[in-house]
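Consider this one:
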Amino acid sequence: MADLFSVTAPRLVRRGDGARHVMAECFPLVDAPGLVYFELYWHLQRPATRAIHVVSGEIRGDGPWKVADCIVTILGCQGTDPDLAESYAEWQEYFQQGAPGYPEREAICALARSVGAQIDRR
């Protein structure tokens, strides 16, 4: 499978504490192994940083991936998590309707950078 950061399919994070999130945005950490991810509808949380997570640790595997106490898989693989698959379908519909209120890419990258993400300069 591909590198965690180049996968375009929706990714699911299962945290060690039992929480499960679909990634809306995902970036590598700049100064250490690990990642920063944003949950679906992160921009509607107050403050938005409640739905932005930093996971520090070596990224192992080729899919599924393990990072610290988290396991990252492709959403829907092997029929898992139909509730989160439905949430992701609603997220896609939100974007098909123009994603009203969703921040511009530049603002998303600035926020990610502020919590330690590496941002490619494309």
